[in-house]
Specification:
This protein has 145 residues and is α+β, with helices and mostly antiparallel strands. It has one domain. 17% of the residues lie in helices and 31% in strands. The protein has 4 helices and 6 strands; from the N terminus they run H-H-H-E-E-E-E-H-E-E. It has a 6-stranded antiparallel beta sheet. A hairpin with a 3-residue loop joins strand 1 and strand 2. It starts with a helix and ends in a 5-residue tail after the last strand.
């Protein structure tokens, strides 16, 4: 995993005890030298970035929305359900980045299925209010053809 992505996961790693959780750590074993390794890595770089929406039953039942960027998953917690209705808006609170392996920790949504047409809009804190974490609105919209 690139060093930049590894550093981005420091908060993620600090919040977890991987001896007690089955969550992926994002640490990859060193690959053995194989002639096809470079070709496979090049092919992986050419694929489209992924996103996932995961149902997370924690202290507060919510959904997690994750977008692949620069070797990690940028992540937001959506306190209410992720809407399928056009025009609906949901608060999305940015949380720590997650390793790419987290995308399959619970499941993925294949391209062309439920999940296409999302927009994230970053909200400014209210006047006189300092938010500890950036907050976003998650909106579903029609895709332009």
């Amino acid at each position: 995993m690139p060093t930049r992505a590894r550093n981005r996961l420091a908060d993620y790693d600090a919040k977890r005890d991987f001896a007690q959780t089955a969550e992926p750590s994002g640490k990859r074993p060193k690959p053995r030298a194989k002639p096809r390794a470079k070709a496979a890595a090049k092919k992986a770089r050419k694929r489209r970035p992924i996103f996932v929406v995961q149902h997370h039953k924690a202290s507060h039942d919510h959904h997690d929305f994750r977008l692949e960027h620069d070797g990690a998953l940028l992540s937001w917690a959506v306190p209410r359900h992720v809407s399928t209705k056009i025009g609906d808006r949901r608060l999305a609170v940015q949380v720590e980045d997650h390793p790419l392996d987290y995308a399959t920790f619970e499941g993925t949504i294949p391209e062309g299925n439920y999940g296409a047409g999302w927009t994230l809009v970053r909200m400014r804190p209210r006047e006189g209010e300092a938010s500890k974490k950036p907050q976003w609105l998650l909106m579903r919209h029609h895709l332009k053809k």
